[in-house]
């Protein structure tokens, strides 16, 4: 690859890209869980959750593309295999098919994990004066915080 001169030194670019790889892995894992739950949700809230989960996995599908493209912009290969995502993600796989309430709780925790991962990347981007990565990560944080709030609201009685 040719020399990259975008005003961010190589060490910072690599550190940010590494953090973004974790964000990508968390986001993709959450995408898969959300899509799985969309297919398999049952119960009294079926229609509401089925539609909500579809909206969420569609948003995540767009987000993973943006994150992967930012990693490439920084001059690093983006991970793209289940094996790589499993190694990089802080979100654990779910065995079986949980009930609707458990799905909501699992996805809430997943969105909260993505926010925590994003906060770590945001610090790196801000320290390196990488406004493009910081903006992307900040936008992702806001979306995941909002989604976690909406999911938590479903569980309040």
TrEMBL record:
Q: Give all residue intervals belonging to the Ferritin/DPS domain.
A: 18-154
Annotated signal sequence is none
Q: Species name for this entry?
A: Enterovibrio norvegicus
Q: What's this protein's name? A: Dps family protein
Q: What is stated as this protein's family in its record?
A: Belongs to the Dps family.
Write the lineage as a comma-separated list.
Bacteria, Pseudomonadati, Pseudomonadota, Gammaproteobacteria, Vibrionales
Q: Which PROSITE patterns match?
A: DPS_1, DPS_2
Q: Which InterPro entries match?
A: DPS_DNA-bd, DPS_DNA-bd_CS, Ferritin-like, Ferritin-like_SF, Ferritin_DPS_dom
